[in-house]
C-alpha cells in the first residue's frame, strides 16, 4: 500500500516556548560569566603579579573554585542555547544553521578546555610533595601562566563565537519570525568579536585602545537577542509557515 505523506511542523513543538527556554539558558550564561569574570577573577587575579595572585587564590580558594564551577555551568547552558537556536533557525536554512551550530560547539569546546588551565592552578599551588623540587616563586609563576593560557583559550573560542554570531545574524535577518534589526545587531556583535580578537592577536597594544569601542556593539547585540528570546520568543505562526515552506521546497 502506498500513501502520500505530508510532513507538517508539529504544533506541540512550541517554537515560542523553545525560544524562551533558550533565553533562560542565555541569561544563566550571562549571569555566570559576570559572576566568574567580573566578581571573582577581577578580585583575585592581580594582573601580572604572580605572588599576589597566588596568595589571593589560596586565601579565597572556595571563591576561585566557585568561579570555575560557574564557567562550566555557563558554557553548558550555552551548548543548550546553541541546540535550541539551531532548531529555531533551521526552517530558514538548515545547512547554514548546522554550520553555525558547529562553530558555536567548537567555541564551547575550546572554553571547556580552557577551564582545565584554571583547574591546573590548584595542582601547582596544592602543596603536593612532588612539587617540592620547584621554588615557591616558580610555582606562583606557573599558576599565573595557566591563568594566562585560559585567557588565550577563551580568545580562540571567541573567534569561533564571532563566526557563529555572523551566521545566526544572517539567519535571523533572513527569517520572517524574528525582527531583522535583531539579526543586524547580532551580526555586528559577531563582527566586533572577530575584529577585537584578531586585533588582540596581531597588536595587543592597539587592541587595548580598540576594545572599549568594540565591546559595546557586541554587548548590545547579545543582550538584545537574549531579552527578545526571553520576553517575546518568536512569532509562532510565521515560524510554522516558514517551516512548511522549507519542507515542501
Number of beta-strand segments: 0
Structural category is mainly alpha
What is the overall shape?
A: elongated
What amount of the residues lies in strands? Answer: under 5%
- The chain-level mean pLDDT equals 89
Main sheet: strands, sense, barrel: none
Q: Note the total helix count.
A: 8
Unreliable spans are 1-12
Order of helices and strands: HHHHHHHH
Based on CA atoms alone, the radius of gyration comes out at 21 Å
State the separation between the terminal residues, measured CA to CA.
25 Å
Amount of helix: over 70%
Protein described:
The protein is mainly α and 249 residues long. It has one domain (14-233). 82% of the residues lie in helices and 0% in strands. The protein contains eight helices and no strands. The chain has helices spanning 15-44, 50-59, 61-89, 94-124, 136-174, 180-202, 204-231, 236-248. The longest helix is centred in the middle third of the chain and has 39 residues, at 136-174. It is elongated, with a radius of gyration of 21 Å. Residues 1-12 have low confidence and may be disordered.
